[in-house]
């Protein structure tokens, strides 16, 4: 790669660091060059690198005790292989932007302080995101950084969708239905016209089904309702997260002597597909198993996804299209088939052969609701949003509270 300007995107997890490198040739549309991740941070790490089409380029062992060392490994690769002197900035996926941010923001001390105050709202997601930012500040303090929020896409929903039935009190100011996976929904909304044409502005439900899973109702390609609310724990069952649960269950467990830390670990890391199956949080593995518990886990996932589709259809006043995306949505043929069966009452009829082959449109010609499989690309959205913010330095001040 030459010295053309480049942009790095980072998605920091609790024990991993995903990244992508983009060329910025016309200052408008970043072009992906490489994607990769550093896994098993704190253990026997691996550095995985792929080209923009997903073709593996290298996999090697790395020593990474923490995120700081992982970032140092990443920057070393950039310096050696891609002329990092051309790096114009870094865009980060940040899970929670709270009430304040309705769009991405350039990182300042004020912005970072506010985002740190939200850590209790997403205790298993926000800290790793912010650790990546602060670590990079330490390593390269002059490098501009941009925060791109999973919550921002949902800010325009009706007030009735954002508020819990709680009183107006200062201590409850930040308690509302935020919604997540916004970068994924933002990308799908952007590319919908490429697939649906004018129907992209109709009533569309997007099912982001992966290790973390949620659904979003779109009208005119804007969020109307979504299944995750105050935290990424809510909604349908996920890989290791329980999804929606009566809050009195938490009170009951506290009364039984369980600590808040143990309850958090139970709900975030021991539940969902893993908890029901007792075997795995991986949908593809569960589909290969014949045990009763594995079948129950898959059935639980499908059942609550179908229920969520019904709820979102009610919020939209009907549904014209259903889009599957993310790991399970893009690859789990039996899950899509089962969800399709459960939605026949809506007028959805899948084409079994198209579904088996993983075609983009998987509904029959006579289906009242069209069904699609569209790969998401959160990194592309992070890059595009970050470039826009970097090209307009004052735009990070454009935030306001929502009703």
Write a structural description.
The chain has 403 residues and is α/β, with parallel strands linked by helices. It has 2 domains: 6-149, ATPase, nucleotide binding domain (Nucleotidyltransferase, domain 5), CATH 3.30.420; 196-378, ATPase, nucleotide binding domain (Nucleotidyltransferase, domain 5). The chain contains 14 helices and 13 strands. The chain has helices at 67-81, 109-117, 126-139, 159-162, 182-196, 247-255, 260-269, 272-277, 283-288, 292-316, 326-331, 333-342, 352-357, 378-391; strands at residues 6-12, 17-23, 31-39, 44-51, 56-63, 87-94, 105-106, 145-149, 203-209, 213-219, 222-226, 321-325, 370-373. The strands form 2 sheets. It has an 8-stranded mixed sheet, with helices on both faces. The protein has a 5-stranded mixed sheet with strand order 11-10-9-12-13, with helices on both faces. Helix 1 crosses helix 3, helix 5 (182-196) packs across helix 14 (378-391) and helix 10 packs across helix 12 (333-342).
Spatial arrangement of strands, main beta sheet: 5-4-3-2-1-6-8-7
Number of domains: 2
Order of helices and strands: EEEEEHEEHHEHHEEEHHHHHEHHHEH
Instruction: Using the 3D structure, state the CATH architecture of the largest domain.
Output: 2-Layer Sandwich
Q: What is the beta-strand fraction?
A: 15-25%
Topology, number of strands: 13
Shape: globular
Which sheet architecture does the biggest sheet show? 8 strands, mixed
CATH class of the largest domain: Alpha Beta
């Amino acid at each position: 790669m030459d010295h053309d300007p480049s942009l790095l995107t980072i998605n920091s997890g609790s024990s991993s660091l995903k990244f992508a490198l983009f060329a910025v040739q016309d200052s408008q549309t970043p072009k992906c060059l490489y994607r990769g991740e550093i896994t098993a941070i704190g253990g026997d790490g691996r550095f995985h690198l792929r080209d923009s089409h997903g073709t593996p380029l290298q996999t090697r062992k790395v020593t990474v005790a923490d995120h700081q060392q992982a970032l140092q490994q990443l920057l070393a690769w950039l310096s050696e292989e891609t002329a990092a002197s051309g790096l114009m900035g870094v865009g980060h996926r940040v899970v929670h932007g709270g009430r304040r941010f309705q769009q991405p923001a350039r990182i300042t001390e004020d912005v970072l302080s506010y985002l740190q105050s939200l850590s209790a709202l997403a205790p298993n997601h926000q800290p790793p995101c912010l650790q990546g930012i602060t670590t990079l500040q330490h390593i390269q303090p002059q490098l501009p950084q941009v925060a791109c929020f999973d919550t921002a896409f949902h800010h325009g929903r009706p007030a009735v969708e954002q508020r819990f039935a709680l009183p107006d009190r200062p201590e409850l100011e930040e308690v509302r239905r935020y919604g997540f996976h916004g970068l994924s929904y933002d990308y799908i909304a952007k590319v919908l016209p490429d697939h649906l044409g004018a129907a992209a502005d109709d009533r569309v439900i997007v099912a982001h089904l992966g290790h973390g899973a949620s659904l979003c109702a779109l009208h005119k390609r804007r969020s109307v309702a979504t299944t995750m609310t105050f935290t990424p724990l809510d909604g349908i069952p996920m890989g290791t997260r329980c999804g929606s649960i009566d809050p009195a269950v938490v009170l009951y467990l506290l009364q039984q002597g369980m600590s808040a830390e143990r309850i958090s670990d139970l709900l975030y890391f021991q539940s969902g597909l893993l908890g029901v199956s007792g075997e795995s949080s991986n949908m593809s593995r569960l589909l290969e198993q014949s045990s009763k518990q594995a079948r129950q886990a898959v059935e639980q996932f499908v059942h609550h996804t179908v229920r969520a589709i019904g709820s979102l259809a009610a919020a939209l006043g009907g549904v014209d299209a259903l889009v599957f995306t993310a790991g399970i949505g893009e690859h789990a043929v039996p899950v899509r088939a089962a969800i399709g069966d459960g939605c026949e009452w809506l007028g959805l009829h899948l084409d079994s052969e198209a579904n088996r082959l993983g075609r983009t449109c998987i509904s029959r010609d006579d289906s009242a609701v069209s069904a699609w499989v569209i790969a998401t690309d959160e990194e592309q959205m992070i890059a595009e949003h970050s470039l826009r913010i970097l090209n307009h330095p004052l735009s990070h001040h454009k935030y306001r509270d929502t009703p």
